[in-house]
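Structure ticket #2291
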Amino acid sequence: MAQKLAFCAFCDTMLETTGIQKLEALKCINCDINLCGNCNRKRHSKIKGSKEHCIIRLNQLGTLKAKDSVRKLELANIICLVHKDEKCTAYCISCSKELCTFCAFEGKHQDHKISKLETVYNEQVSELNNLKSKMKDDISFFNAILKNTELKRQEEAEIYEKAKQKIVQREKDMKEIASRESGVLFQKLDILLKPQIDALNKTKETLQKNIDYLKQTVSLTDQILQSNDAKSVFDIAISIKKELPSRDIKELDVTVKSQVDFIAPVLPLRFGSLVMPKLTIKQSVHTPLKSIKCLESFSNGKYVSIVSPTGTDSQSSLEYFQIKGLNFVVECKISLHFKPCDMKVIENNQILFICQDRIFSLSEINKFEIFFLSDMVLSSPNNCICITAVGNILLGCNAGHFGTSDAILLNNQGLIKNRSTLKYHVDKIAASEHDTYIIISQRLSLIKVVQGLSSTFESKWTYEGHSSINSIVKFEPMDIAVSTSGLIYVTDESTHSIHVLTQDGDFVKNYGKEHGIIDPEVLHLDKEGQLIIWCRDGTIHVADISS
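Resolution: structure written out below.
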């Protein structure tokens, strides 16, 4: 595009032709003329009132400074809407309207707040610049929120798609199971009734042939008897006697078996359910408990914890307490002559303590007895225990050498029902209502993970932390609890938070400091389905997790 030429209004010198002249290429905004530097100094400056004129360089045309200068000229030329021959010099702040001198001192504006037009203009320009700066900051603010919202939307969309795919897969699995079972029943049905039906069909076919033969023979006999041929009577009679079907049909008699029917109970159809993670703190109570191994509750609402030795203490102890409103009420404290690894409350408010080589029971009358004594090596101080949905007792017993453990299933009388060797160290163990076991395991690499096991102790899934939460610090699970809806709650030491997982080990939520939970460590589900959270500062939270 060709450059537009500019000439000085006084000497007709072409401007912007050389570097030196370019610096002296000027424009008077008030006069709306181009000037060279020489004419500006010697001629334009002689014009009356030119000292108040706005002179800018030609290469500054289009800049904010130039536009502001033009606007100020336009400001001085605003015509009054009432007095057409007058220019506006004032501004009515009460009416937000430009005024000429007559309007400012006459009529309805007499009692209004009046200011100089240029003063208000400068204030408005300054305010617009401030608003512009604020709006730019707001754009950055909302862009950041938009980005964060999009990330959350993507996460929710992923959760939605995962849940949708699981529902589709569940439907497919149930159809496959139904198809497979119906196929087996069809085979059994064929074995039971098909030979009988085939035999009856054969009998039916034989009987129908006899009937057809007899009808044809009767017709033929009628024809012979109505004819004049005597010899035919002898021939047909002999033939009929030879071919006549016998009434002795014992060989055609098919014994019908007992009636076969399809008996199906009411469908125990449990397609699945949708759960939304929820954790609402109902109560928060500060306690003097600074170091505990585990926390349990009784059917009457009381709690019991194993208080670990601290300072000069050499013995663990049991501490019974209640939470009444905001108060922590201690009921009693019992010293233990053994070192428990873990404990669980079973039926009749009986407490089971798992130690290195045995399990003690404690009844309501505070009587200790040996519940289970194993001849297997249980030398680790980190053995663990949980109760299954059907009341069986599951033990995680770590072997003498690091990295392996035994999963031992007992009935409620302490008799072994099943035992399986696991190729990792088990720190904590829990069970869902579907006989799915969730454990915190420690591998030879010293990496802690949460694992889901089937009822036969086969690994179904592994959770090693969430990428957005454990991107800087590694996942350090400490305790687990499984809700009645199947959600898995795991405390993470490294991020001082609680991870919430599905039954399949998928991350769905995280609760921490922003939810009022600081340094959570021990978890317990009470008889009402509430999640009890013990934090390292001694605070106990009672949380509603119903969804």
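Closing remark: Residues 17-21 have pLDDT under 50 and may be disordered.
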